[in-house]
Specification:
By secondary structure, the chain is an all-alpha fold. Helix content is 71%, strand content 0%. It has helices at residues 12-16, 33-38, 41-59, 73-84, 91-102, 109-125, 129-142, 147-159, 163-180, 183-200, 203-219, 223-239, 243-257, 264-277, 281-291, 297-313, 317-331, 337-353, 357-373, 377-396, 413-422. Helix 7 (129-142) runs antiparallel to helix 8 (147-159), helix 9 runs antiparallel to helix 10 (183-200) and helix 12 (223-239) packs antiparallel against helix 13 (243-257).
Length: 428
């Protein structure tokens, strides 16, 4: 009788889910240069030193950590924290990192990582995105098996438009989350890749990533991620001009989110922009009016600009002037700088639709100046185009009837459902 040879089982899973390395450098000439560029003076130097020390400690072996810092470094660093006048919100985290200098062998990785994350969160709140990314990455390096920490690095890199770094961290996160069984982070990482590839214009790849996110989230009843996946597919269908498919995905996202969900304002903004781009101003206007009070000033200024554009194009002069006045008030706030150019362009388009040429030129010219100040190339080109259009329309429509006030349209079921769901959110 012939004996059967034993064949060992193939190790497909281990090979498939090997954790890949991630990119840790952007365009910095040396580690942390972007931190020094973003924060000047003693505070910037303190942040850079703290970042460098966390990375040095995190990358050293346990045996090497006792020798990486010079004796007396801790008191010197504590004095630097006082001299730099570190903000109260971030001082405890910086003190933890200073304590690491004197107790390198005794510090727990979790504590060092937490301190780095606290600095990252503080910096993000201050609009210091380079600092936030640098410290989030340090936290992920100190605790390399933390899928959530890895995911945060990917998100921040994508927000900084460091696409290659973001993709490498998303792919690393997927492997870490798969190993840990963290299906929320696993599916969210596919959503992130979908957003990344949508911004690159690679729509087939983006669709595959969103579909994988949707599949994983649905299996595990992660309804927020289901909503995010449909939301991403809605933006994708809108970009490719598939109107019916886009509205279907928007409706699916709305139902997955449910009433009162914090992601509803973003969905409402995207839907209103989709309708405005198609010239469906009457449908966009009630959605924008419903969502504007739910937004923070830096987000609301864009929504109010959209209201002005839509109102102007349906001939509602009173509502246009209300939106114009509110937008000018919001634009005086420093935190509205990021969306200011877009809001001003929409103000110019709304004024132009009503034949208010002096207002249209005023808003368009201000948008152009702001885009040049902020070095926003796309906004600058749009502002120049809008100003040219205003000049042309001013000539062509001198003797042409202006739009009559819109008598109103019957809201679509999607509009009604979205406005009802927004009603359950508290105003910002």
């Amino acid at each position: 009788m012939r004996q059967r040879k034993f064949k060992p089982a193939k190790r497909k899973t281990e090979r498939r889910w090997r954790v890949p390395p991630a990119l840790t450098h952007g365009e910095d000439v040396f580690e942390g240069l972007s931190v020094l560029e973003e924060v000047n003076g003693e505070l910037g130097l303190l942040l850079w030193q703290s970042l460098r020390d966390a990375l040095l400690w995190g990358q050293a072996s346990i045996a090497e950590r006792t020798t990486v810092f010079t004796p007396g470094a801790e008191p010197s660093r504590l004095a630097a924290i006082l001299a730099a006048g570190a903000p109260a919100a971030v001082e405890p985290a910086l003190r933890t990192l200073a304590r690491m200098l004197g107790s390198a062998a005794d510090m727990r990785e979790e504590n060092v990582s937490l301190a780095c994350r606290e600095v990252s969160e503080w910096a993000d709140g201050q609009g210091l995105l380079a600092v936030s990314l640098a410290f989030a990455q340090a936290a992920a390096i100190v605790t390399p098996g933390d899928a959530a920490g890895s995911y945060q690095v990917a998100r921040l890199a994508r927000r900084r438009a460091e696409h290659a770094r973001a993709e490498s961290w998303y792919r690393r996160t997927i492997a870490l989350a798969r190993q840990a069984g963290d299906w929320s982070i696993y599916s969210l990482s596919f959503v992130g890749l979908g957003q990344l590839y949508t911004s690159r214009g690679n729509f087939p790849a983006a669709r595959r990533f969103y579909t994988r996110a949707l599949r994983a989230a649905s299996r595990n009843s992660l309804w927020t991620v289901v909503g995010l996946s449909h939301h991403g597919l809605f933006v994708l269908e809108a970009e490719t001009g598939r109107v019916d498919a886009a509205e279907e995905q928007c409706a699916l996202a709305l139902r997955a989110y449910g009433p009162g969900h914090p992601r509803l304002p973003a969905l409402a903004q995207d839907l209103a922009s989709f309708w405005i781009d198609r010239g469906n101003f009457a449908q966009a206007l009630p959605v924008l009016r419903a969502v504007a009070p739910k937004l923070l000033p830096r987000e609301r200024v864009v929504s109010v600009g959209g209201i002005a554009r839509a109102a102007g194009n349906v001939g509602d002069a009173d509502r246009f002037h209300e939106a114009w006045a509110e937008a000018l008030q919001l634009l005086q706030r420093e935190e509205c700088g990021e969306g200011a150019a877009q809001a001003l362009l929409d103000l110019a388009r709304g004024a132009s639709a009503l034949g208010l040429w002096h207002l249209a030129e005023r808003a368009g010219q201000r948008a152009l100046e702001l885009a040049e100040q902020r070095n926003e190339g796309k906004s600058r080109l749009l502002a120049e185009s809008v100003l040219e259009t205003v000049q042309r329309e001013r000539t062509l429509r001198t003797h042409r009837d202006l739009p009559l006030p819109d008598a109103g349209t019957v809201p679509a079921p999607l509009t009604e459902e979205l406005i009802r769901s927004l009603g359950e959110l508290t105003p910002a």
